[in-house]
Design brief:
It contains 10 helices and 12 strands. With 308 residues, it is an alpha/beta fold.
């Protein structure tokens, strides 16, 4: 199949491209102008690289031509920044995705696979682990626009038969995650620990998250390219919760020395606990995470050391 990976040069997208190319699919990467090809340098002779403006309708119409499946992993905001400018969050992500869906419909695309956010769309959980039918009450603009995109994707399926799959992923981490980014606690914490720098924790360290190695994410995408069942929505997570203090302890074990920690006031958009119920993906897709947190941290450490 010909697969278009939006954001294929990024942390998540590049691993998805690895999996697709290894499986024999043709891959077209769409990235924002002037994005580095570093993450896919090893693939660049095997993929088609296209740069453009995700908010430009004309660009979107061109890049979907001749494509069977669209994998939507591009975005312009983060949970931390989205509340600062919700209008930009909506205009650059939700409206652009509507243009994309219209182009996909008009071009006869077979399926859209969308990376939603299992960490934000549910809001403060009523039950742990969180199943797909849990109420959705996001407390940040990022989660609201992700949820709105989900609804529009479902609408296009209802109106036009555009097939889809939605992945509500937990907290992905691993090789190629930027250690100086605004999100991604694992890479940021590990990099600071290796450099002997102080790690900043918002709140008392009890905030609990579900961490998932990026290669397990890519495996789920590969399964969904062939999947044609009636369930369209899947939680994709690590299946186990770790507090920030747990994460620090495992990092200390992996690097074999203690780290410095500084506690700062809690952030209002952080839900206290988020652990996804992955029963549906396990039973229907026959998918489950294969890389545990300690092994994943070892891989992350090796990658960060290789950058030095």
């Amino acid at each position: 199949m010909k697969c278009l990976v939006l954001g294929g040069g990024g942390f998540i997208g590049s691993h998805v491209c690895d999996a697709l190319v290894s499986a024999g699919h043709d891959v077209r990467i769409f990235e924002k102008d002037h994005v580095s090809k570093e993450n896919v340098e090893h693939l660049i002779s095997s993929v088609e690289w296209v740069e453009g403006d995700f908010t430009n309708q004309t660009h979107l119409k061109e890049i979907v031509k001749g494509v069977d499946i669209i994998i939507h992993s591009i975005g312009t905001t983060h949970p931390r920044t989205s509340n600062e400018n919700p209008v930009y969050d909506i205009s650059s992500n939700l409206i652009s995705t509507l243009y994309l869906l219209e182009s996909a419909r008009d071009s006869g695309i077979r399926k859209v696979i969308f990376f939603s956010s299992g960490g934000t769309v549910y809001g403060i959980p009523q039950t742990i682990p969180i199943p797909e039918d849990h109420p959705t009450e996001p407390i940040c603009s990022y989660g609201i626009q992700k949820l709105a995109i989900e609804k529009y994707i479902k609408l296009f399926y209802h109106l036009y038969g555009l097939d889809y799959a939605i992945m509500r992923i937990s907290n992905p981490y691993g090789e190629r995650q930027r250690p100086h980014a605004l999100q991604g606690a694992v890479a940021v914490f590990m990099n600071k620990a290796l450099n002997g720098e102080e790690i900043e924790i918002w709140g008392d360290g009890s905030v609990t998250r579900d961490y998932l190695h990026i290669r397990d994410v890519a495996r789920a995408v590969l399964l969904l390219t062939d999947y044609s069942g009636s369930n369209k929505l899947f939680n994709i997570g690590g299946g186990h919760g770790y507090s920030l203090l747990d994460l620090i302890r495992i990092i200390e074990k992996v690097i074999n020395h203690p780290v410095k920690v500084r506690f700062t006031p809690a952030r209002p958009f952080d839900v206290p606990v988020n652990v996804l119920d992955i029963t549906r993906a396990r039973d229907i897709l026959k998918w489950r995470p294969e890389i545990g947190l300690e092994e994943g941290l070892q891989r992350t450490m090796s990658y960060l050391k290789s950058l030095r």
